[in-house]
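[Discussion] Sanity-checking designs against the backbone

I'm trying to build intuition for which residues belong where. Below is a structure token string of 244 positions. I'd appreciate it if someone posts a full sequence so I can compare it with mine line by line.
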């Protein structure tokens, strides 16, 4: 892991850009982290485009830092400045067309999401290896937001992640419901009831499939970008319970 830049934000949070192989990312640590014991870490998911998502990501990172948590995020394969996949671009175009026409999308979702999950999850694990080697970071580790299918896979295969806050705002391949049944860690799932980009019934079925003994579904009225502020505060309390 090579840090390419760093800046101290006005609230004392240290923001560092890094590159790990071909993976760009950002790490935020609380202002007191260098002088204190190693802090817990939240892996912060997003739908792609670090530069475009920066205002929302840094706001989430600041809130986590106020709780004493570090946060890190990476660019997804095929997003931002990373090389594009012709197959993924075609699948996105096919998905938009099928949704407009009211046609079935399961096969298209498989073509779009499964290769992304297969590529992104090992990259997250490699990043986690490098992050936990830093003296200022310890455990436990949480995963927050982003493409929900990536969160499902990580919750199954990565034992260092002890809790996950997931956003039911993206399509999930049906074959991944079997993986959801293997998830055992505590979950906090956010659902926007009128999300124009999401299949509400699929989101409810996925929540039902999760095998966790502790799982909470918070559903709020509104579209994809209409998440109320208190929903973020509830998610923060979830992580405070499980990472503090």
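Best answer:
Here's mine. Compare freely.
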């Amino acid at each position: 892991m090579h840090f390419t830049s760093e800046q101290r934000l006005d609230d004392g949070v240290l923001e560092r850009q890094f590159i790990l192989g071909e993976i760009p990312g950002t790490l935020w640590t609380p202002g007191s982290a260098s002088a204190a014991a190693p802090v817990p870490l939240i892996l912060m998911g997003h739908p792609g485009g670090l530069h475009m998502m920066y205002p929302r990501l840094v706001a989430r990172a600041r809130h986590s830092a106020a709780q004493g948590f570090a946060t890190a995020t990476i660019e997804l394969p095929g997003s931002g400045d990373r090389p594009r996949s012709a197959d993924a671009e075609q699948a996105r175009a096919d998905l938009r067309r099928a949704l407009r026409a009211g046609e079935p999308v399961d096969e298209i979702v498989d073509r779009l999401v499964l290769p992304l999950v297969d590529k992104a999850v090992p990259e997250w694990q490699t990043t986690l290896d490098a992050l936990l080697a830093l003296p200022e970071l310890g455990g436990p580790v949480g995963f927050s937001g982003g493409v929900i299918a990536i969160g499902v896979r990580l919750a199954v295969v990565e034992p260092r992640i002890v809790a996950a806050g997931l956003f039911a705002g993206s399509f999930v391949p049906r074959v991944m419901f079997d993986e959801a049944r293997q998830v055992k860690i505590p979950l906090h799932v956010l659902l926007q009831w009128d999300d124009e980009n999401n299949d509400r019934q699929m989101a409810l079925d996925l929540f039902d499939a999760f095998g966790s003994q502790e799982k909470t579904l918070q559903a709020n009225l509104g579209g994809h970008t209409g998440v109320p502020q208190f929903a973020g505060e509830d998610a923060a309390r979830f992580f405070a319970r499980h990472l503090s």
